[in-house]
Amino acid sequence: MTARRGLFLALILGILTSSLAQGAQQQVKIPRIGILRPGSPAGNPDPFFDAFRAGLRELGYIEGRNILLEPRWGEGKLDRLPDLAAELVHLKVDVIVTGTSMAAQVARQTTRAIPIVMATGDPAAAGLVSNLARPGGNLTGLSGFDTELSGKRLQLLKETSPRITEVAVVWNSAYASMLARFKEVQVAAPSVGANIRSLEVRDIQEFERVFAAMTRERPDAVLVLADPLTLVNRKLLVDFAAEKRLLAIYESRDFVKAGGLMAYGPNFADMWRRAATFVDKILKGAKPGDLPIEQPTKFELVINLKTAKALGLKIPQSILIRADEVIR
Fold first, then answer.
1. Are residues 66 and 128 both part of a single domain?
2. Which domain holds residue 240?
3. Which residues of the chain form beta strands (DSSP E)?
4. What pTM does this model have?
5. pLDDT tens across 240-270, in order?
């Protein structure tokens, strides 16, 4: 009788132990977030990735404790993106966060099941969504596109140097969402009395042709539209503008940090931080297609006075007082 009772108690204890172990395993399942970026840190800090991590921390997520991050960088080789996206899908990540329209397109082509959060990009122009308010499908996030920004950049050029009439626009015509941005520049140009010269690049080999055209035609100023190709080659662009003493404005502070004259655009670090809120909502059960795609709320003007001095250019006080950051 005692032996049977002991066997019975041992059986019950075994069942309870097994149940508790299974419950513990379920409790320790940590969400895994994939990050798909065309660029590469290559030993350099990635401020946008850091901003995303900061946003997660603000929401109570501690990396390695209650969330896992799986960053994948293309290292400037855009043809690597499909393999990297497939790798994230194979890892069965819970969400994929992308930083460009191109990365989002690749992610969408790779999976229709895993939620995708765009930290920046232009989902409408890229054909990823038709309605920002109700994107549907497995994609949501933020759009960095604002139709008024092109006119403001041209106005900044004109305010810096009123003599400007000819503006060369360097942009990647192989990148689908860039066409809408270039068209907005064309629409905005007459309001500031500027003529636009389109200089298209599709790969790194075409920069030599574009540089030759600018050397030959000598535009009054240059506007560089930011995409993975121009961002990866920003030092090449900035150095050329310095060598030819060209007044140039860019869409991202990355160019100014590399020595460019000025940039005006969305605060991308803030957008990456806000992307964390989308991840949080999805992990808590929200469907990505039901989350409206948001527009940027913070914009920044960054000026490099070292570059201005090297160009022999005096930045008007009216611009300096509006700057969010001045590099001296």
1. yes
2. 149-266+300-327
3. 32-37, 68-73, 95-98, 116-118, 139-141, 166-171, 195-200, 221-224, 247-250, 262-266, 299-304, 325-327
4. 0.82
5. 999 999 999 999 999 999 999 999 999 999 9
